[in-house]
Amino acid sequence: MSDDQDHGFETDALHVGQEEPDAEARSRAPPLYQTTSYVFEDAEDAAKQFALEKPGHIYSRLMNPTVGMLQERLAALEGGVGAVATASGMASLNLATFLLADVGDNVVTASSLYGGTYTYYTHTAPRNGVETRFVDTLDYDAYAEAIDENTAYVHCETIGNPSLVTPDFERLAEIAHDHGVPFFVDNTFATPYLCNPIEHGADLVWNSTTKWIHGHGTTVGGVLVDGGSFPWEEHADKYPEIAGDNPAYHGVNFRERFEDAAFTYAAIARGLRDLGCQQSPFDAWQTMQGLETLPARMDRHCDNAMGVAEFLADHPEVSWVTYPGLEDHETHDTASKYLDGGYGGMITFGLDAGYDAARTTVESTEIASLLANVGDAKTLIIHPASTTHQQLTDEEKAAAGVTDDMVRLSVGTESVEDIKADLDQAIGQATN
User: Fold this and answer.
1) What one-character-per-residue DSSP string does 18-40 give?
2) Is 157 helix (H, G, I), strand (E, B) or coil?
3) Would you list the domain boundaries of the chain?
4) Which interval of the chain is the signal sequence (predicted)?
5) Cβ partners under 8 Å of residue 212, min gap 6
6) Which backbone phi and psi does 410 adopt, to 5 degrees?
7) Which of 117, 271, 315, 395 is most buried (most C-beta within 10 Å)?
8) What is the pLDDT of residues 94-149, one digit of tens each?
9) Which residues of the chain, if any, have pLDDT below 70?
10) What stretches of 244-320 show up as alpha helix (H) in DSSP?
11) Cis before residue 167, ω within 30 degrees of 0?
12) How far apart are the first and last CA of the chain?
């Protein structure tokens, strides 16, 4: 394949990072390099690699050929200049915060967030001296009002979990950049197949690759993608890890050394080295297998989700349905602008009978599995108020968009008629 030829997403999902077969064995599948370390050519080669003066593989906590293929592929699909694969999505979030925020800094984030992200910001980040300022996801004036000279970044989710709202990325990017801070987006629910936040002004993107990117419920992972767009050198005093003479890496200025990919290399050399949150070669190898079929799976997820959402909207026992593809969804127009070709595989809905009926529904399905994951090829169901968002106060649940009667549904790739029939019988058991 020619490096200067543009290819479609479906082609890049299969080939980027391994345009030619493996040189040693001529393997068409990506090889699995299950090794901790690599033999240097000589002492000078070792010294130059450790000084970041020569590319290569030093140690698999920092870099690995299999992981490198995944990173190159995801960077291309997200439209970034580099990517760092991590042990989980939460590891990606923590890695970015580690690099960008210092003691006394704050983060401004949308309040509609995955429960783990919410508790990271409310309980973990503060232990490191970082304050979190939550704002209504769609109140753009509130973002601007919350930012001050100590704000490290502005954050939101492409499709909020579990509210499923899609904010206006271009407005948020403008707000963040007007205040001299990067705009950071969790793209997990959309994946790069449906949305490319970097095209709309995001500087950094993270994903839990555990979800749709891998898509088969076997492998936990995350990725942090560098858009290469933020002018770190203009804010060197604020971001010394990236644009200053880094004392933790013998004075290297990552911005001067690696230019647009400064954040990527700082995340590797400082973040992975010291936090040890790297993705294993085996997990990266597994994730690439799932990534190859992402376009076909995502099309099916979206088609099925629309069919199920329409079915639930007409169900007599269902009081409300939230799905970005429905015209009555509060951010349907914004989702239509930013999501390309589909509205995702997530639905939330409520039952007239309330909390107990919602809990009975999730334990009565026969096809949908009651478990704490989303983005599997199989349909998954859960009651957020008593599980994923249980640790939140009533006020925090309300801010996150979680209600007692809410059922969260990750729509799989099974027959859509079978999914609808399964939900119908489960709701029937809960309400009769």
Assistant:
1) -SS--TTT--SSPP----SB---
2) strand
3) 9-282, 294-431
4) none
5) 188, 189, 191, 294, 297, 298, 301, 345, 374, 375
6) -100, 105
7) 271
8) 999 999 999 999 999 999 999 899 999 999 999 999 999 999 999 999 999 999 99
9) 1-5
10) 254-258, 262-266, 273-275, 281-291, 294-313
11) no
12) 60
Q: What is residue 200's predicted lDDT score, i.e. its pLDDT?
A: 98
Give the Cα separation of 228 and 48 in Å (integer).
25
Instruction: Report the alpha-carbon distance of residue 43 to residue 118 in Å, rounded.
Output: 47
Distance CA 408, CA 114 (A): 12
The residue to which tokens 């858009």 are assigned: 227
Beta carbons of 204 and 96 less than 8 angstroms apart: yes
- Nearest Cα neighbor of 126 from 112, 105, 157, 142 is 105
pTM over 0.90: yes
Please say whether the structural domain 294-431 has been given the CATH code 1.10.10.10: no
Report the pLDDT value the prediction gives residue 3, as an integer from 0 to 100. 54
* Position 143, amino acid: Y
Structural tokens at position 103: 């003691």
Crossing angle for the helix pair 65-78 and 281-291, to the nearest 10 degrees: 40
Q: For residues 64 and 278, what is the distance between their CA atoms, to the nearest angstrom?
A: 10
CATH 3.40.640.10 fits 9-282, yes or no: yes
The number of beta carbons lying within 10 Å of the beta carbon of residue 192 is 29
The CA distance from 324 to 344, in Å, is 8
Q: What confidence score (pLDDT) does residue 325 get?
A: 98
Structure tokens at 84: 């760092």
- Can you say how many angstroms the Cα of residue 64 is from the centroid of all Cα atoms in its chain? 22
Closest CA to 272 of 56, 84, 70: 84
The label of the residue with tokens 């050394």 reads 257
